[in-house]
Amino acid sequence: MKVGNTEVHFIEVKSAISQSGLPDLDYALNPYLGCSHGCIYCYARLYTKDERASKNWGKVVLVKTNLVEVLKKEVKRKKKGIVGVGTITDAYQPLEAIYKLTRRSVKILLESGFYLSFQTKNPLILRDKEILLNYREKVDVGFTITSLKSSVSKFIEPNAPFPISRANAIRALSKEGIKTWIFYGPIIPRINDDRETADAIVTLAVETGSTLFYDSLHIKSFMLNDTYPLNEIIRTFDKARVKNFLNFLKKRCEEEGIICKGGFEEEKKSF
Ligand code: SF4
């Protein structure tokens, strides 16, 4: 069936939270496979096992219909730990407004004593603010902001909410005392590696007391294609430029006294 421009399929799963290979996380919760935000750089397609979603990235999303029932059983036997919410999908993409799988799973996990680390691009997470507030010591919320310019976001994250709305969501959550962080990544030469962009993101981190994670673009096989929208940038990828920019960014963070951590492999997830 179609919901807006998204082709939706339904699947049943055997497991709700999976072991996470990402640093800092014990488990991953991904209520959907695929993501209608359709970011052109998204690496998650490489880790999405169903080809309907991975080969039609941004257009097809699979809904895990029995997720909540499976999770209810799983939380009783799994060791408590940190769950990354949305590691290969955005758990707050538009379909979540209809199916509420994330909301229901988050409640179960928090009530069962798990710690949740969210990463999203969608202010829909504010719908669940009351749940998060009840467990504010047990959650942190990260928003990916690659630029505060809508034109940049529209190009590289075509269906995601505009960055200004994400910035406002971070403000709203941090004002309520929820621990927030910003993921500035991927940093792509000539797209979002300018000083104005870095300054705007650093300023937002200062204002909201957010930790800043950053990551430069990792070139993946799906990008090595003549029709790939960043083809020219990939072909002429300038590592020295990236290095200089990251040094500039680290210096800006130091000047502003904010915690700034780099690298997907070392520190945090990057999608
Ligand atoms: S980067 Fe995140 S929001 Fe964008 S398509 Fe991938 S999972 Fe969705």
Topology:
Blueprint lengths: L1 E2 L2 E6 L5 E3 L7 E3 L2 E2 L17 H4 L5 E5 L2 H11 L4 E4 L10 H4 L1 H11 L3 E6 L8 H6 L4 E6 L5 H7 L6 H13 L3 E9 L7 H14 L2 E6 L14 H5 L3 H18 L3 E3 L9
Parallel strand pairs: 2-6, 4-7, 7-8, 8-9, 9-10, 10-11, 11-12
Antiparallel strand pairs: 1-2, 3-4, 5-6
Helix pairs in contact: 2-4, 8-10
Iron/sulfur cluster binds next to loops.
Keywords: Iron, Iron-sulfur, Metal-binding, Methyltransferase, Transferase
InterPro entries: MJ0683-like, rSAM
Protein name: 23S rRNA (Adenine(2503)-C(8))-methyltransferase Cfr
And the CATH topology?
TIM Barrel
As a percent range, the share of helical residues equals 25-40%
Topology as a string of helices (H) and strands (E):
EEEEEHEHEHHEHEHHEHEHHE
Number of domains: 1
**In one word, what is the shape?**
globular
Largest sheet: number of strands, sense, barrel closure: 8 strands, mixed
Bound molecules: iron/sulfur cluster
What's the CATH class label? Answer: Alpha Beta
CATH architecture field: Alpha-Beta Barrel
Q: What's the overall average pLDDT, rounded?
A: 95
Structural class: alpha/beta
Could you give me the name of the CATH homologous superfamily?
A: Aldolase class I
GO biological process, one term: methylation
InterPro entries: MJ0683-like, rSAM
Protein name: 23S rRNA (Adenine(2503)-C(8))-methyltransferase Cfr
Keywords: Iron, Iron-sulfur, Metal-binding, Methyltransferase, Transferase
